[in-house]
Amino acid sequence: MKKTFQNWLALALALTMLLSLLAACGGNSQNGGADDQQTNGQQTEEQQAGDNDSQTADQTDDTQQPPENETPQPALVSQGFMPLDYAENFSIELYENGCRMIRGGANDVQLLVVPEGVEVPEEEIGDDVSVLQQPIDRVYMASTGMVSVVDAIGGLDHVKLVATDVDGWYVDGVVEKMNAGEIAFSGNYKEPDYEQMTANDIQLHVDTTMLDGYPEVVEKFEELGIPTFIEDSSQESHPLARVEWVKVFGVLFGLEDEAQKYFDGQKALLENAGGTDTGKTVAMGYIASSGSCYARNGGDYMAQMIGMAGGDYVRANENADESGNQKMTFEEWYADFKDAEYLFYVNFALGFHSVQEMIDYNPLFADFRAVQDGHVYITSPDFTQSTAAIAAIVADMNTILTSDDPAVTTDHLIKID
Fold it and tell me: Given Cys at both, which of 6, 191, 196, 391 links 186, Cβ 3.0 to 4.6 Å?
């Protein structure tokens, strides 16, 4: 019995020791768990710090890059329009990136002139806008009057082809370049040489309102991808408005400062070229090879030139708000012109070189007062190419109207007997 009790006691002690050992192990395990949690807590803080760093980096990137839903700034930001003193048939809009939008002409074009190295997104350009990237140095010009103002600002290097052959030019710079092979004749404006247009990679076609009756020419240029600009400077009412078209070519050829300087000089020259009203009446017009007669409307720039020179244009009250010419029969022309003291005949269609030639053409010329008084003047051969010389022409008119010399003649208006 005693032995049995001893055995149970030993067993109890063993169980007690085992439980103590297990309790000790359990305590170590709990301590270890606390250490692990502390270590895990440190890792969490480090990770949190890393996340914060990542967040900071992301936030920094966000400040450097625009949000996805933000609209980018447009490339064409308008700065308004170039100031124009007289011209009404074109406008030039200015943009911050140096681009220029030329609008107008008889065919109401929109030409976006883009500086070299500047790109404009296609989505900012309408389908009706022609983009011209500078340098623009391969231009076909069928407008002789505008070539004269291009020459005046030193821009002939930008002209590649013209519609008048060398023997028909009176602009010395053009003659020199044609003789040197730098400018070529490409056929009449009604029948241009399209193969030459393609071979010379023409960027722009500049023509006059004389092209109005030949829509197939414009269509062919469109087919070739060459924009057409039909300048209508001749429809401007003020003489200096026509000269102000130089600003269009200043923009096209990167010669804006030169164009402004030239225009300002012409403006000052014209102010000094005119005179007070002489009270002398003047008729001005021409006869076409078809026999149709044309007289300047009262609102035409040439009628204005006569007034600036001190003369009274006999048709000043006829179509006073319209530029250009009025088509007439010879009988109507005669009725309007026969009593004028001076006749300035525009000698480019049906030409005359003497008063007798006029009378031989139609005996009614003998009844003109200007013929009887010896005051008949024809325009010089370069007259229609002398847009750049408008101020000088006004000065010539004034010289004729104020001179006491019956034989007086000038550079642009030549006396014939």
Answer: 196
Reported in sequence order, the residue ranges of 222-323 that DSSP labels E, i.e. its strands, are: 228-230, 280-287, 293-296, 311-313
Burial 362-379 (b: 16+ CB within 10 A, else e): eebbeebbbbeeebbbbb
pTM of the predicted model, to two decimals? 0.75
CATH architecture of 274-415: 3-Layer(aba) Sandwich (3.40)
Question: In whole angstroms, what is the distance from residue 304 CA to residue 393 CA?
Answer: 12
Three-class secondary structure of residue 334 per DSSP: helix
pLDDT in tens, 30-60: 433 333 333 333 343 334 334 444 444 444 4
Assign residue 201 a region: left if phi > 0, alpha if psi is -120 to 50, beta otherwise?
left
Instruction: Tell me the residue length of the chain.
Output: 417
Q: Where do the domains of the chain lie? A: 78-266, 274-415
* Identical topology for domains 78-266 and 274-415: yes
Between 3.40.50.620, 3.40.50.720, 3.40.50.1100, 3.40.50.1980, what CATH number should domain 78-266 receive? Answer: 3.40.50.1980
Q: Are 302 and 324 in contact (CB under 8 A)?
A: no
pLDDT digits (tens, 9 = 90+) for 253-304: 999 999 999 999 999 988 888 778 999 999 999 999 999 999 999 999 899 9
Q: What is the pLDDT of residues 131-183, one digit of tens each?
A: 999 999 999 999 999 999 999 999 999 999 999 999 999 999 999 999 999 99
**Helices marked H in 214-365:** 215-223, 239-243, 246-252, 256-273, 301-308, 330-337, 355-361
Which has more pLDDT, 182 or 235?
182
180 and 249 in contact (C-beta within 8 Å)? no
Structure tokens at 248: 């269009």
In terms of Cβ atoms closer than 10 Å to its own Cβ (0-12, 13-18, 19+), residue 203 is buried
End-to-end CA distance of the chain: 174
Could you give the C-alpha distances from 71 to 66, 95, 124, 138, 309, in angstroms and in order? 9, 19, 13, 37, 58
